[in-house]
Amino acid sequence: xxxxxxxxxxxxxxSITNILSGGQFQTRSTRSNIIKNYDFSYPHSRANFTVTxxxxxxxxxxxxxxxxxxxxxxxxxxxxxxxxxEVAPDKKxxxxxxxxxxxxxxxxxxxxxxxxxxxxxxxxxxxxxxRVKPGIIVKRARFSAIxxxxxxxxxxxxxxxxxxxxxxxxARIILDLRIGAAFTRMQTRTLQPLFQQITGVVSYxxxxxxxxxxxxxxxxxxxxxxxxxxxxxxxxxxxDVTGNKEETPFTWSRGHLFDFSVAYALYVGVxxxxxxxxxxxxxxxxxxxxxxxxxxxxxxxxxxxxLKLSPKKILDIAEHLYQQGFVSYPRTETxxxxxxxxxxxxxxxxxxxxxxxxxxxxxRDGGGFSQPRRGKNNDQAHPPIHPTAHAGNLTGDEKRxxxxxxxxxxxxxxxxxxxxxxxxxxxxxxxxxxxxxxxxLERNYxxxxxxxxxxxxxxxxxxxxATFVPSVCELRDGTTTKPSLLTxxxxxxxxxxxxxxxxxxxxxxxxxxxxxxxxxxxxxGSVKYLVPSTFGIGLANGxxxxxxxxxxxxxxLRRETERNMVAVCQGTKTxxxxxxEAVEQYKDMYIKAKTNFAKVISSVRSxxxxxxRPGEGxxxxxxxxxxxxxx
DNA sequence: GCAAGGTC
Length: 631
Known about the structure:
631 residues, six-stranded mixed beta sheet, 20% strand, DNA binding, topoisomerase
């Protein structure tokens, strides 16, 4: 018997082959230069295995020819127009390989990633194979990590494909297409003739619009910001340490107050006292936790913050490093290492490095090793991102991304930084103040992870019950600071939290709203801020003005889609019900949007016009203030 | 010329 195993991508088919064959296999090339077929016998199942793969989705959904041209129909018809499913043009060789191999096999075993998309891709593979071999037996291998014992178990105890999950994804695909195309064509066809500035597509998408919404919403907060004055009592003691005057400042436990008369009354009360009393001195061990194992979203967030590269660029570089075999698969939600994961040999590979080799060897030989922290997420398909080989010849940004991934990994495998914290509490005139000191005892992971800062702060000795005359006691004032515009790192975090996009697509959505000129990046020093263009503000505000209870530029609608997908996965809702309900809902919104589109037009007009008034900087679609600082 | 999700 021949069993045809199909994985979601080349790396997995290779790993599965290595494990199941014990290294004894033949390789055949295919018409696709990224895909290989591997043959070997698998005595446990008394079968010959052929392992191959696809590269993500093979099928593509689009409207039938009758509705494909932009002016072929009223965009509203796209909510019901026929949709055809066909092999994507660039996946022809992959599909042909599947059918050719299926013809030789009696059983088809699906080895795609064990997530919703994987289940849907599995269903695509089944569909393609059954076109040429309707009777082929279909099984599903279920695995949660690419480790020998699990892969053998999956091969020997296959389950059934989960068509609920596959249907949930199918529903999302169809809805995104209908909604995206209908609104995009409507917006573009309405706005383009009215504004010479609008030359490209005015796209709408259920992920890109909420993404734009986040940028506009922060921009509005910055615009609406009114600085507020506050007051606080500043208390300090000067020590004469061998002639050097050193001031120890104390923080008021009330923080600061916005009411001057209250702050002033308290201050006057304080001044009546002559001496401050040390009420409590607390000394305790403290630690600064090492970072969690690295996920895709975290790589993009901290990478763009620390390395000043765009999230998309970081992911592209990580992908390339992966292709070269330097790092593990870069798209993962997992922030915990499997207990059986062989960390030691990966650490050993880094001993050769000039910069962090000594640290790696201290982990390996010097007892510096500590099991990584376990986060809460596991996608059951890929481990956290880690270096898989030592790379000594990288340059430029590739080198910096590899260095970050490697230092992060070594930091995860070392110990938390240890310190000793002293808190001195003081009472003066009925008010409480405190000061904190920190002595760093062991830097541990900080030695290899310079991206985290932890500074010690010396505090003179204070004894409980002691009294002193403060050197400084003043009522000082300050003002609240303007919030900053969003950085790409901020936006990645907000999208992740709101479930907009996935780890692999978040960066793409950000690029899309920049490509469409809804948002314009602006450099302020080395930090890149995202500023909505006048056009983007006009669109987002225009839709807000229409008064949907769940605006098209807010995240709720996408959250509903997600909830419905979960219901379809659980079998409490059918794919058709989900599609019909959502289509009805969006049809209503479309009609409402179209009849009230004058509001969007006037909102876009007022913003673009404001921008192109003579003498005010031309019509580069860019408006708004300079990014606010954080201090 | 439309979407978002896989993958390269």
